[in-house]
Amino acid sequence: MTYTHDLQALIDSLSPINPSDYGSSDIRCIKDVFFDALSAHPRVLAIRCRLTVPQEHIHTRKKNSFQIQEKLLIQFIYEFKDELATDQRIKREQRRRTHGSDVFYFWRTNRNAAGNIYYDLFIMVNKDEYHKVSDYEGTDLSAMIIRAWASVIRLSAKESYEYVFFSKRYKLSSKRENFIGQLQCAFDRVCSMLQRNEPTHWSNVCHFGSSQYHLAHQ
Length: 218
Description:
Elements: H1 7-12, H2 24-40, E1 43-52, H3 58-62, H4 66-93, E2 104-111, E3 117-126, H5 141-153, H6 157-160, E4 164-173, H7 179-192, E5 206-210, E6 214-217
Antiparallel strand pairs: 1-3, 1-4, 2-3, 2-5, 5-6
């Protein structure tokens, strides 16, 4: 069965559980990225993961300004996009069908109790091209995320495995009965990444950004 939705109206109707915890510009940013992703790809696979910067990454630990954090995250996104492009090129060479995929994302920096910087990352890709995270090996999404982060922190993929943690994933399909419920769950998950009152070890500094534009919170 096919379900039709007014995507813009549906996304505009989304609201955080506690609206007073968020700035209006942040919520608008989140809604705009969801709209961009679902306009480009009616079927979206959304993944939340955590990327931790090793203690040995001295440059980032000593110079932890927003610009340095943003540069490191954007470097990861470029590496990840390169992984996707390589994967799709190989599929075409093998005469396998490809659908292509843009990358939409949200990120937040924090610091754990051990003093390590980490990024909470929420990535959305075309589910027609990538329909699961899989088993962390080969050409699946998890392996490509690990390799991309390995390139950024200058470790091997095997060494980088302990610095990448995968958590909740969402399958958003505008033609499925559960679309609205899944969309609300995914929206709530992204909102939780930037709650102003969320405990942090960052000493009053936490940064949030997206594929559309980046915001810094002091």
